[in-house]
Amino acid sequence: MRVDLGYVPLTDAAPVIAAAELGFAREEGIDLVLSPEPSWATLRDRLALGHLDAAHMLAPLALATRLGLSGPQADLVAPMALNLNGNAITVSLPLWEAMAPEADDLDAVASAFARLAMARAGEGRPLTIATVHPFSCHSYQLRIFAERGGLDLGRAVRIVVVPPPQTVDALRRGEIDGFCVGAPWNSIAVAAGLGRIAALGCEIVPDCPEKVLAVHGSQAEALSPLVEALHRAGTWCADPANVGELAGLLSEKGGLGPDTDLIRRTLTGHLVVDPTGLCRTAPDYLRLGSSVHRPRPEHRAWLARQMAASGQIADATEVCEEAEAFYRPSLLKA
């Protein structure tokens, strides 16, 4: 059975790339054809309109598509999660220098960001910060980060949408002052001498529900072999013994660039956070594997609360109920 699966080039696409390239899908009777997509909006539309059978997708965006809140409405379901965490907030080097946080801990950095953002807004030249899509954990983490520093993000900062693969170039061109994006694009900005990783997503929201496998509800049962293949592939990706091979695979086949050592660091959480070589270790920076594949009930409620807090919906209760139908853990046999 042929399955066309869309993904956006990110480290957390590892399970779908491994499933296609290492034979996990083939062993389950699936001819898995991967389609790298330039943006989340493009991926959403192609999946919703039936040009794709499945997708590596932002959990909030998949749910929003089901609810008819973003793009063409489609009866999307998520039989499994592909990862937890993986995001970070990166700011330009001039912005980091101007922030001058008193310490590197999250509260100090958030407070420094808030002070500078409010000052710039008062001068009529607000900061421009990019997120990857309004319906994304990146947007929610940006808001939570700002609130931690006492900042109303929507009132003081200009928020724009930039697809993940374009964030580094946007920072280089000075179109944005920073961004929240998934690995490896934060690390690529640091390696290019353009940015400083200011905060890790796993610190802002531990075990944040990031990407899911999204499929049409009418095809969910037929695609159970795909779920099994991705479960096996994700388990392989989480094995420390496979990190080197996986980094090479993501570099060669995943569209993540030639620096396999950089990709390896995003897989292990040993991150270089600024161009001087300053390192941070965060074992939960990106979580892959069988322990994260089964969707958690608390994630349904969290997504609904974040949509409400962001003004995207009026009532979290109604969406939380719909999210029960969105997550289909019964299709994950493991």
> What is the first-to-last residue Cα distance?
22 Å
Q: Helix- and strand-based class?
A: alpha/beta
Please report the total strand number as a whole number: 14
CATH topology of the largest domain: D-Maltodextrin-Binding Protein, domain 2
Protein name: Nitrate transporter
Subcellular location: Endomembrane system
Main location: membrane
Keywords: Cell inner membrane, Cell membrane, Membrane, Transport
Question: How do you describe this structure in short?
Answer:
With 334 residues, the protein is α/β, with parallel strands linked by helices. It contains 17 helices and 14 strands.
Can you tell me about this structure?
There is one protein chain. Helices cover 45% and strands 19% of the residues. By secondary structure, it is an alpha/beta fold. The protein has two domains: 2-85 and 208-331, D-Maltodextrin-Binding Protein, domain 2; 87-204, Periplasmic binding protein-like II (D-Maltodextrin-Binding Protein, domain 2, 3-Layer(aba) Sandwich), CATH 3.40.190. The strands form four sheets. Strands 2-1-3-11-4 form a five-stranded mixed β-sheet, sandwiched between helices. It has a five-stranded mixed β-sheet with strand order 8-7-9-6-10, with helices on both faces. Helix 13 crosses helix 14 (260-268). It is found in: Endomembrane system. Keywords: Cell inner membrane, Cell membrane, Membrane, Transport. This is Nitrate transporter.
